[in-house]
Amino acid sequence: MSTVTITADAVAVRLSAAEKAGALRGDLRVPRSAVRSVEVVEGSPLRAPRGLRTGLAIPGARKLGTWHRSGSREFVDVRGGQAAVRIHLEGQRYDSLLLGVDDPRAVVAALAPTPSEA
Length: 118
What we know:
Layout: E1 3-6, E2 10-14, H1 17-23, E3 28-31, E4 35-41, E5 52-58, E6 62-69, E7 72-79, E8 84-89, E9 96-100, H2 104-111
Parallel strand pairs: 7-9
Antiparallel strand pairs: 1-2, 2-3, 4-8, 5-6, 6-7, 8-9
């Protein structure tokens, strides 16, 4: 299972060796300054990715990789039955990250702008 780490400077997604093979990419790290917004994904996160896939999709169980749609690119790492967040980015390889997390509201709170950023 991948690990999402949020620091003062970055959002990092660390993938296991098997996940790297399935996603056809390595670990991911984006600067916090690139985060434009973050939202909790309502309903099943397995239904949220749209477009053409490069990576792994196991119906009802897992989606992992890159989804391409109308000039946008989204990195997806979600499992069936797990909550997820969508992090919208600017100026990065990906336009958004769709990530399965244990506590989506904590991720939203962690990525909320601080009073000095607002």
